[in-house]
Amino acid sequence: MSAPQTETSLSPIIVKVENLSKTFGNLKAVDNVGLEIREGEIFGFLGPNGAGKTTTINMLTTLLKPTSGNATVCGYDIFKQANEVRRNVGVVPQEYTADEDMTGINYILLCADLYGLPRSDSKPHSEELLELVGLQDAANRKIGTYSGGMRRRLELASGLINYPKLLFLDEPTLGLDVQTRTAVWTYIKMLKEDYHMTLFMTTHYLEEADSLCDRIAIIDHGHIIKTGTPEELKESIGGDIIVVGVKEQDPDISSDIAKIALVKEVKKTGNTYRIKAESGEEASPRITDLIEAKGLHVTKVSLTKPTLDEAYLELTGRNLREEEVDKMQMFRQRVTMNRARS
Amino acid sequence: MKAVGKTESEEAQSEGSTVQEKKTKVQAAEDRRSRPAPRLNKSPIHGLWALTLRDLRKWYTNPIQLFVALIQPVIWLGLFGKALNFGSFIAGSGLTPAQQDQILISFFGTTSYFSFLACGVLAFIVLFTSAFSGMSVVFDRRFGFLNKALSTPVARGSIVMGKIFQSVGRSLIQAAIILILAVLLGMDTAHFSVLGIAGAFVVIFLMGIGLSALFTMLALRSGDWQTQMAIINLLNLPLLFASNALFPLKIMPTWLQDVVKVNPVSYANDATRQLLLGTPGMVGLPVDFAVLIGFAAILSAVGIVLSWRFLSK
């Protein structure tokens, strides 16, 4: 996962979104969104509830018609060539859509039929996919007997039945325990690395986005606030925080520290300097050198890298959201959570 | 149910094996890429049968559903057909049997009210089965399967037609069972013929299509099952009572007769009675069939058109 942005920045564009908007009545759910996703990358879509993530995914997967704007997915227009888009992408919705009274294999075969895959292909392929997600032994069991983790993996497998170039994952780990979540991450990485697929995922879990995604877009109130690699987003909030301890009686040399190239902000309180710097690893030795050079003593140094959580909260605000949410969406989310935990 | 206990340990096992098997999976991925892309069936009705079967499977794998669905029509046969039989009212009137038969024939077209009603109960079962065809759209929407299906290239019209055909399938089988039960309970079989019975099932098929299309299209936009239940209740009884299913047209007030004559259910009853009992009809069989074919064709066409508009918002 080293240097992810150079790895895919030259590959062709697979999703291109321009000024995409969707209005429901008076509500602008998605407002002038623009995006470019390149082949082979894992693109994360983050945002608070009701920010427009699912609406955007639903437009890109042709479930919703945009109010205005354009988007092409796999080279096809989402409006004019909807069926071509559908044939080329896989969708793993937030919900557990599989019928509980079906067996795992029958559900995947049903999905294959909906794509128009001939049985001669879909039979071996569905077995292959169940094996891929470790469900081969449960293939002939009713889905109602599956655990939440198994159901999530089944949904993942069913999203892959049509050999998609691009897979949409809406909250793939919602409500899952740590073990299953880690397993889902493994599959996602495998799809990118071994199958060279492009993945577009939404998530609420920032550590998930941080460890999986090559690039992230943060959306709020229907607008994209920021797009970039996880590192870029973290740096955007002002960089690393270096805390340097000195002796109480030493003179204040804040203004000198502030002159160091990477340092952005210095505050001294009591016997500690709190310094914001762009690249903490490089800045901290320079700071300690400077303090030592002035003949003063450094008692302790600590370096904190900003987390994506902080970047996210900085960009979307810390206020709790109490917006009106779609009743249906809330119902589905409750069902999903209940099933994930069963 | 013993499978439930196995779930967790099996899951842990398969979790561990995924890493070990990674190598073979990479191999599988390579194999998959080198394989030629399968030829997709792009016909506009691909997936229709799969969707129909999905819903039918839910029904036939759950025999309790079938059993419960048959109880009500059987009660109707027993209660209206036997206990509240019009024939028994006239039997106590002091008229001679010949006069009694004459009266019955003039009202019902047959001497057996039970047989008259049995044809009505066939319509009843189609009506009540079709009424719930919309419910499965509501539940598919609520639980997300509808979105899953919409994200595939399956025709939107096939999603609607799948719902209609599954409901028609249920109607045909339930009607067959009810017809057999009715015969066992004493339905008049003197006029039965292979052609007549086949014709009656064509009638049931056509009425099933029309009524299921009606109830399915009413559910296309809704994700709320309470509303759907209210709609079913609102439409079911008028469609049944404002038809000739239970009582003949002749004993109705004229205003009701006018309503009955625009109710497609009446034409289905009229046709099945002519085909199975040899009664003189309200209108001729060709008219009955023309009305039913028109009803089925127009409503399913409207259903398909509405599906383009309302399934994706």
What can you tell me about this protein's structure?
The complex is a heterodimer of chains A (342) and B (313). Chain A has 342 residues and is α/β, with parallel strands linked by helices. Chain A is 38% helix and 27% strand. Chain A has 13 helices and 14 strands. Chain A starts with a helix and ends with a helix. Chain B is mostly helical. Chain B has one domain. Helix content of chain B is 77%, strand content 0%. Chain B contains 15 helices and no strands. Mean pLDDT of chain B is 85; it is low at 1-17. At the A-B interface, helix 3, helix 4, helix 5, helix 6 and helix 7 of A face helix 1, helix 2, helix 3, helix 8 and helix 9 of B.
Considering the chains and any ligands shown, give keywords for the structure:
A: 342 residues; alpha/beta; Rossmann fold; Alpha-Beta Plaits; four-stranded antiparallel beta sheet; 13 helices; B: 313 residues; mainly alpha; 15 helices; disordered N terminus
Largest sheet of chain B: none
Taken together, the total number of domains of chain B comes to 1
Multimeric state: heterodimer
> How many structural domains are formed by the residues of chain A?
2
Fraction of residues in helix of chain A:
25-40%
How many E-type strands of chain B? Answer: 0
| CATH H-tier superfamily of the largest domain in chain A | P-loop containing nucleotide triphosphate hydrolases
* Major sheet: arrangement of strands of chain A: 6-7-8-3-9-10
Task: Estimate the strand proportion of chain A.
Answer: 25-35%
Enter the CATH topology name of the largest domain in chain A: Rossmann fold
